[in-house]
Design goal:
Structural class of chain B: alpha/beta
Helix content of chain B: 40-55%
Strand order of the largest sheet of chain A: 1-2
Radius of gyration of chain B: 25 Å
CATH architecture of the domain at 309-493 in chain B: 3-Layer(aba) Sandwich
Number of strands of chain B: 13
Number of helices of chain A: 15
Largest sheet of chain B: 7 strands, parallel
Oligomer: heterodimer
Radius of gyration of chain A: 22 Å
CATH superfamily of the domain at 309-493 in chain B: Glycogen Phosphorylase B
Strand content of chain A: under 5%
Number of domains of chain A: 2
Helix content of chain A: over 70%
Order of helices and strands of chain A: HHHHHHHHEEHHHHHHH
CATH topology of the domain at 309-493 in chain B: Rossmann fold
Distance between the termini of chain A: 26 Å
Strand content of chain B: 5-15%
Largest sheet of chain A: 2 strands, antiparallel
Number of helices of chain B: 22
CATH class of the domain at 309-493 in chain B: Alpha Beta
Shape of chain A: globular
Number of strands of chain A: 2
Chain lengths: 456, 553
């Protein structure tokens, strides 16, 4: 907390619009860096390979393969990301620092074993007519990315945002560079280059983790023992990632909206590009998210629980409660406002923008719906974050389960209703989940003290 | 810690009433903690072999007690343990709404408790809450309901002068929870003819509940004054936090949480005084104090402790003619005994009489921190071999080896060790607490004529205590006069036969009243107490259970 919060405070204290702008820009980059880099990186590799890697389908195969690797590794590790981060936080609270490095390596080991075996099973059983090198690369890619997500979340739990953004810039820079150098070898070359960059990034992160938590004991699997990680967190993390990808999966595996790309992997030409571009529009919202929910909220949250634990007056506890509540309200409002402004600007300039990049204007309506949906997703992320802090794991599971079920169902429905409804499945899903989340949040805040004291 | 003879704690709710004559309610004493009250309980049980006793031991937490310190006599037919602050009895945390009717009831009960000064409103509180606690106002309601939360926060804002809400919350929770768990316990205990509590406090509350539930007589024998002792404990208790800034505190004023605890014990005490008949004190000062604390004067009386003189008398011959230069504190090493003053007094006395020794005979495990401080004090005073910690001692073996029984307590009732010392011919030097002055200089002309059997000094006055001890040990003629006075005093006023005669009257009366109530008859209030006070019965026409006749046999 100290690191990023302090720097943001310093920037915010400049008390000028420029200072404010700088603070939020900084926060946006910090919070959205990793996935912006990955989207931009993938597009860059594609653009740089045009004309060299032929036919063009190979480039699509590369991009689709990497997208699937990212999706699969995210869903696979979503639960562990949350469960383990919480486990680490609890050990840090108990001041048992020496337990962390052995457990971290244990988690890496389990992740590698599980994603490796699943990867092998999929590569051997699911993929026909691909080279063995390709099979090896997707297995390596899956395990590498899985480990990378765990490490990223671990580092962001330690609030090492700047290091993460730096490493992602470096890693994806390397990926683009190596892919560029390896493009004469076609699909395998591009994949190898991409994974080379990712591997560099993972090694550096590993080094960073072990520098913070030197290994003083042998690796162990204690954190997988009974009653070590919260089942609700494991479920919540998995469901969230599954829920976010559910609409993509639906579009990929519905015959009318997709084409086969390589092996069993399919892609949706109409759906995918607008969706990924839409995510770039939530940068400003993510900035607010970081400032309000990871910095301001945490300050009130700390005050609240310190007062509860260490004998504050009820009036103070109520004041900090109000502080938390106000930050949540303001934060959600601000995300809404800044996203609305961003979307208005995007709406105004999107025809020129698409024409300039060379994307068909047919994509525009879907892109705009997706941009709205992605904005809701930022707000949902903020709401979920509050539930995580206040340790309401059951609510998290309820919300993420709603997200998953609705996204599958409504995406399917939107496909049935026809192309003009594409994207609305995802948008409506997020809107409903977000509403439910705010309702639960309101209920939670209404009886936070009661639950904190009477039901502990 | 369980006793092989008894299937531990779990009472048989349907045991026939005839099985148990007297149910003794023991809070933090017999049979797990040794001390004056425990010895007395042991003595009483042994003294009435024809009565069947069932013991109910109330402790704080299971882990706070070791093995039983006493071999339970054969006429103890059952032993139930209950731990007041054990988590295991609490219901699981589940959200509960609560209802406005119950909230209103809680409000009314508290108002009655706070403002109701008469025994009728207090009886009403007990009756109404006992009834309500079985239904809507259960422990789950208190611990987990929104209504309880609302009431708690409202009371905090209205009354709490300490800023810490979390401390308020836990204080209120901790002190109220036994009110429910004890009511539940009361319903599960086997029936008895008579209930006898040896303190007020939680045991006294349990007694009041049992008396109310079963409509049976409750006897209260108070050795110290529970409420007063708790007050001393609470003032020095470090586990109660006091978060009022130091500048805002008034000297001598207890912090808010301490006041809460004291008020709780006062309320529990009054409930017990209301329910008990007779209310027995050890000596006159305490009887007056009980009246001041809310006991009906009519039900109060005194029965002094008595000891078994012959075993101690036999040790007189074992002592050398010159009294051994040993001043001995016999008691548990706990703050209330103010052992530190004794240790300082040993320093003073040993400066006067070379070779004098100070012994501390009593267990140190009840308050390990205090015991450690005492040892540290001894070594800082460079007492070396002059001071010995002996641990628990068999008194008939100890008495011939010592020259003085010393008590430096800041609070005592009627300490048996003084009487035991007298019986063995050992004079006593004590602080001016409880009945000590009466025990040493006598009460009334006849008693005073026996002479001083030692000396009394002010509390926490190590210099005076040490000097008084040195004077007695250094002057054999004076010592022997005191020894003779002590022997005469104990044999005339404080023997077991005298005490047993009085308690026989109390038990006989209570058992008769119990039988009468079973037959639907009412009895007169305070009859046996009136007889024990040596007054004439107020009721000109003795009812069926009038005790005067029993008293005379």
């Amino acid at each position: 907390m100290a690191g990023i919060g302090f720097e943001l405070r310093k920037l915010l204290r400049a008390e000028s619009y420029l200072g404010l702008l700088r603070a939020y820009t900084y926060a946006s980059i910090i919070s959205s860096g990793p996935w912006v880099f990955s989207i931009v990186g993938l597009i860059a590799v594609g653009v740089l390979s045009l004309g060299v890697v032929t036919p063009d389908t190979l480039i699509t195969q590369f991009q689709v393969t990497v997208t699937y690797l990212i999706m699969a590794s995210l869903i696979l590790t979503g639960g562990l990301q949350l469960g383990f981060t919480r486990w680490v936080a609890d050990r840090l609270f108990e001041k048992r620092h020496a337990d962390i490095a052995p457990a971290y390596l244990g988690v890496m080991l389990v992740t590698t074993a599980v994603s490796g075996s699943l990867g092998w099973a999929a590569a051997l059983l699911g993929f026909h007519g691909v080279s063995n090198l390709y099979r090896v690369l997707i297995v390596v890619g899956l395990t590498l990315l899985a480990n990378l997500w765990i490490t990223t979340v671990f580092l962001s739990g330690l609030k090492q945002y700047r290091a993460i953004v730096g490493l992602y810039a470096l890693g994806y820079g390397m990926s683009v560079l190596l892919s560029y150098l390896a493009r004469p070898w076609g699909l395998q070359g591009l994949l190898l280059g991409f994974l080379g960059g990712q591997f560099t990034m993972w090694v550096l992160m590993l080094w960073l983790v072990l520098r913070n938590f030197p290994l003083s004991r042998p690796i162990n699997l204690n954190c997988f023992g009974r009653r070590q990680m919260y089942v609700a967190l494991l479920a919540g993390g998995t469901l969230y990632n599954l829920g976010v990808w559910a609409d993509k999966l639906t579009f990929w595996f519905t015959a009318g909206t997709s084409n086969p790309v390589i092996g069993p992997l399919r892609a949706s030409t109409i759906y995918d590009l607008p969706v990924f571009l839409a995510y770039l529009c939530v940068l400003p919202g993510m900035g607010i998210f970081l400032v309000k929910f990871e910095t301001d909220f945490v300050e009130w949250y700390d005050k609240f629980y310190t007062a509860v634990r260490e004998g504050g007056a009820l009036q103070d506890i109520a004041r900090y409660h109000d502080g938390m509540q106000a930050v949540v309200r303001e934060g959600l409002y601000q995300i809404l406002k800044v996203q609305a402004l961003t979307l208005l600007a995007v709406y105004t300039f999107v025809p020129q923008l698409f024409a300039w990049i060379g994307i068909s204007s047919l994509y525009i309506p879907l892109f705009l719906v997706q941009a709205v949906a992605a904005s809701f997703q930022v707000m949902l992320l903020a709401v979920l974050n509050v539930f995580y802090y206040l340790d309401r794991r059951r609510d998290v599971v309820l919300l993420t389960a709603t997200l998953t079920v609705l996204n599958f169902a409504l995406s399917l429905l939107s496909i049935h209703l026809g192309p003009e409804f594409f994207g609305y499945g995802f948008a409506v899903t997020l809107l409903v989940t977000l509403m439910l989340g705010m309702l639960l949040l309101q209920r939670l805040f209404r009886k936070l003290e009661y639950e904190t004291f009477m039901l502990q | 810690m369980s006793h092989p003879e008894f299937s531990d704690t779990q009472p048989q709710p349907h045991a026939p009433a005839a099985d148990i004559d007297v149910m003794l309610l023991l809070e933090g004493t017999y049979p797990y903690v040794s001390g004056g009250v425990s010895s007395w309980v042991h003595q009483i049980i042994n003294g009435f072999p024809h009565l069947r006793f069932h013991l109910v031991f109330l402790g704080s937490r299971e882990q706070d007690y070791g093995k039983a310190r006493y071999q339970l006599p054969a006429n103890v037919v059952g032993l139930t343990h209950h731990y007041l602050f054990s988590e295991s009895v609490l219901p699981a945390a589940r959200e509960q709404r609560g209802d406005s009717q119950t909230a209103a009831l809680v409000e009314r009960l508290h108002t009655l408790l706070r403002d109701g000064k008469d025994r009728h409103s207090r009886a009403e509180v007990l009756r109404a809450s006992l009834q309500a606690m079985q239904h809507q106002l259960d422990l789950h309601y208190f611990l987990h309901s929104h209504q309880a939360w609302a009431y708690l926060t409202e009371q905090y804002q209205l009354r709490c002068t300490d800023p810490s809400f979390v401390d308020y919350f836990w204080t209120v929770r901790t002190m109220h929870t036994p009110i429910w768990t004890l009511a539940t316990l009361a319903r599960s205990l086997p029936a008895a003819r008579v209930y006898h509590t040896v303190s007020t406090g939680y045991a006294g509350y349990l007694g009041a509940v049992l008396a109310q539930l079963h409509d049976r007589p409750l006897i209260l024998s108070e050795h110290g004054i529970y409420t007063k002792e708790r007050r001393i404990d609470l003032f020095s208790a470090s586990w109660i936090s006091d978060n009022t800034p130091i500048l805002e505190r008034t000297a001598g004023e207890a912090g808010y949480f301490r006041q809460l605890w004291i008020r709780l014990f006062e309320s529990l005490g009054r409930m017990c005084y209301d329910a008990a008949d007779p209310v027995i004190a050890l000596y006159e000062t305490n009887r007056l104090r009980q009246i001041a604390d809310g006991a009906d004067p009519l039900t109060t009386c005194c029965i002094a402790n008595g000891i078994n003189v012959p075993p101690f008398a036999a040790t007189r011959a074992l002592r050398p003619v010159q009294p051994p230069p040993v001043m001995c504190l016999i008691g548990r090493v706990v703050p209330i005994k103010d052992v530190k003053t004794f240790i300082r007094a040993v320093r003073v006395a040993s400066n006067r009489i070379p070779g004098l020794q100070g012994w501390i005979a009593g267990p140190e495990d009840e308050h390990p921190d205090y015991a450690r401080e005492c040892r540290e004090l001894a070594s800082s005073l460079q007492l070396g071999d002059t001071l010995k910690f002996l641990g628990f001692q068999k008194l008939t073996e100890l008495m011939p080896k010592i020259g003085l029984v010393v008590l430096s307590s800041i609070s005592e009732a009627l300490p048996l060790v003084i009487l035991e010392g007298y019986a063995a011919g050992v004079p006593a030097v004590t602080t001016d607490v409880g009945s000590c002055r009466q025990l040493i200089y006598g009460l009334g002309p006849e008693d005073e004529a026996l002479g001083a059997s030692g000396a009394v000094v002010g509390i926490a006055d190590a210099q005076a205590l040490g000097e008084a001890c040195a004077e007695l040990l250094g002057d054999t003629a004076r010592w022997q006069a005191a020894s003779r006075a002590g022997i005469a005093r104990v044999e005339r006023y404080y023997t077991q036969p005298i005490m047993f005669d009085h308690y026989r009257a109390v038990y006989d009366d209570a058992l008769q009243r119990s039988a009468a109530r079973a037959a639907g008859l009412r009895d007169a209030v305070g009859a046996v107490a009136t007889w024990l006070r040596g007054e004439l019965p107020i009721d000109p026409e003795p009812s069926a259970a009038a005790p005067a006749e029993q008293g005379s046999d």
